[in-house]
Amino acid sequence: MPDPRALLLLPRPLEGFILADQARDLLRAEGVAAADPPRVPYGAIARLPRPLRDRLARGTARRLLRTLEGDLRAVAIFHPVQWPLAQALLAARPQAELWYGRWDRYEVAYDASPRMRKRLAALHEAAAQRSALTFVVSGKLAELEREAGREAQLVGLAADSFPAPDPGAAVIAVSLGHLGWRTDWALLRAVAERMPELVLLLVGAWHEDECKGDADFAWCRAAPNLVWLGRQPDEAAARLILCADVGVLPFRVEPFNDAALPYRILKYARLGRRTISSELAGVHTWDQAVTTVPDAEAFVAALRAQAGARARPDAELRAWALEQTAERVNAPLWERLRALGLA
To answer: What's the pLDDT score for residue 1?
Structure first.
C-alpha cells in the first residue's frame, strides 16, 4: 500500500502565509505535503456560481492528485474559500478526512461585501460540519464552535521565524539627519558588524545618488540592525530619539566635517541623550554633550556604555540644552544691535 499522506492546502505561498511557522513544522513529517494556491485564486473560485465553481474545483483536484504520491488521509484548509477544492479532493479520495484551521472570523471580514459575507458563512458552515479536526488560534473561536455544537482544538500561534534579539543586551542608537556623502558608511558597517546587539534608528532622507558604488553603504542598507525610517517631522523625530539610549554622529573625518557643529547634537541633548561622534574638532564646542572616539572599536565601547540610558535620561544635559535658546545664543548680536541703535 502507498505511504499515507496529508495535504496542506496553503491559501498563500508559504513565505506569505500567516501560519507559515506552523505549516513548516508539520512539513517536517515525511507524510505531509503542501500545495500552493491554484492558478485561479481561491477567492475568485468562491465568487463563481456554484456549478462553475464545482467544475473548476474538480478539475483542479484532478491535477493536484496526479502530482501527489501516496494514499491521501487528510486534507487541511485554512480559509472557507478553500472548501470547494477540499470538497472535490475528498469526493475523489473518500478515505481522507478534513482538517479546518481558523485564525480569524473570515465570514465577517472588513473587505467582504454583504453578499460575500453570506457566501463565506455558508462555506464556513459546510467546512466546519465536515471537519474531523477543527483547530483554532483563540479561545473565542473555540467558543463559537462550541456554540454551533461542534468541538475545536485550541492550538494558538507560533512565531518561530520572527527575530528575537536579546532585549536585555540591546543598545538603541539614533542618527538624525542627512544620510549621504557626509556619512562614514565604513564606520557604521564596522560598528554594526562588531555589535549585533545594536539597533540604529536612521531618521532622515538617504541619498542613493551620493553613495552610488559604495559597498559599505549597500551593506548598511541591507543590515537588519540598521532601521531606515526616512525623513520624519520634528514631532515624530523627537519621539524616536526618546526611544534611543544615545545619539550618533557618524560623519567622515575630513575637512568639510571637521569644523561643523551639527544641530543633531543639541536635539539629542534636549531629550537628555548624549552624542557619540568620530573625532571632529567642531563638536568639541559642545564637549558637555559629546563623546568623541578615534575608531570603530572605541565607538562600540562608547555605545555599550550608554546601554539602558533611555530609561535614565541625563537631566543636567537636558537642562543645559534647553538653555541654548535663540535669544541666549544671539546675545552678542543683540549687543551689537543695541550699539547701533537698532534695538
So the answer is: 41
